[in-house]
Amino acid sequence: MRKIIYIQLLFTSLLFTACETSTDVDSGVPYKEYTVINAQLSAYKVFNGVYITHTLPLDVSYDIKKAEITNAIAYILEAGTRVIPLHYFSDGLYKPIKTVAILPETQYELFVSINNKTIYSKTLVPDVPNVVNVTNVQNNYLSARVTAKSGEAYGAAWIVSGGGGQTAEKADDFFSVETSDHYPSDVLVRTQNIPPPYNTSTYSDRFFIQVYAFDKAYKDYFLTKTNSNQIDNTFTSGGGPVVWNVYGEDVIGLFIGMTEGTLTHP
């Protein structure tokens, strides 16, 4: 008999705001509890911490107080030299006591211990991506040529300005995430299609593209994020396992470096 694993994930969207999400993942096996790691490290920004939670069974209503893990011992290692202890605050969030600004082109490692169970991850935080040029393709989507660097991946989102620095509409995901195996070189990234009524000449002067640079590991996650998933979800991809970048026994999630580029008009 087919069984469903119910995965509760608390994830800070790489495009938008923090949100709680629930996912029914059809695994074909009985429920098994997983530790969930969730952290985004953005260059030049304050480190917001790491969420450490666990999955809940399908028949249990989501409650962060049931999902959070409060007894973890955790720290991050910056550039192999600086140890930054993480302390439990609330709702599964572990963060430094003092403000920590994330450095570009720097490796960060995560170490977590929970009841003698160890979890490890590492990520490279890119610098602001260098956009060579931008093209508006018949008002349907935007594309950008980006200078590629080793260990990085790139995605792009369209944004329609509402004037006065406000955003009228923006993409809800990337069209693709691109990498290169040759350096120096450029890669071409494009946005999702711009939906009506914005894909007309009336709005063409209000189109902007924002390119995101990621640790290269994000591409593997992006390509698999809906595997074994019954519904669309920011944190999970049909047919095969989702590729995470955290390691340990019964652990899933992302500890990922990324940096937002500036808004660019074609």
Write a brief structural summary.
The chain is mainly beta and 266 residues long.
Structure characterization notes:
The protein is mainly β and 266 residues long. It folds into two domains: 5-126 and 218-259, no CATH class; 131-214. Helix content is 5%, strand content 47%. It has two helices and 17 strands. It has helices spanning 64-67, 217-224; strands at residues 5-12, 18-25, 35-42, 50-54, 73-78, 82-90, 93-95, 106-114, 117-125, 131-137, 141-148, 152-163, 166-170, 185-190, 207-215, 246-248, 251-260. A twelve-stranded mixed sheet has the order 13-12-15-17-3-4-7-6-5-8-9-16, with helices on one face. A three-stranded antiparallel sheet has the order 10-11-14, with no helix packed on it. A two-stranded antiparallel sheet has the order 1-2. The chain is globular.
Descriptive key words:
2 domains, 266 residues, 12-stranded mixed beta sheet
Lateral strand order in the biggest sheet? 13-12-15-17-3-4-7-6-5-8-9-16
Low-pLDDT windows of residues: 1-27, 228-239
Give the tally of structural domains: 2
The whole-angstrom Rg is 19 Å
Question: What does the average pLDDT come to?
Answer: 84
Note the total helix count.
2
Distance between the terminal alpha carbons, to the nearest Å?
54 Å
Estimate the global geometry from the Cα principal axes: globular
**Biggest sheet character:** 12 strands, mixed
Share in β-strands? over 45%
Order of helices and strands: EEEEHEEEEEEEEEEEHEE
Binned, the helix content reads: under 10%
Number of strands: 17
Structural class: mainly beta
